[in-house]
Amino acid sequence: MAEQALLEEAFYVRVMPKPSVIEAGCGFCLRFLPGDIDKAVSFLSKRGVNIKEIYRVEESGANVSYNRQAVIRQ
Question: Does this model's pTM top 0.70?
Answer without folding.
Answer: yes
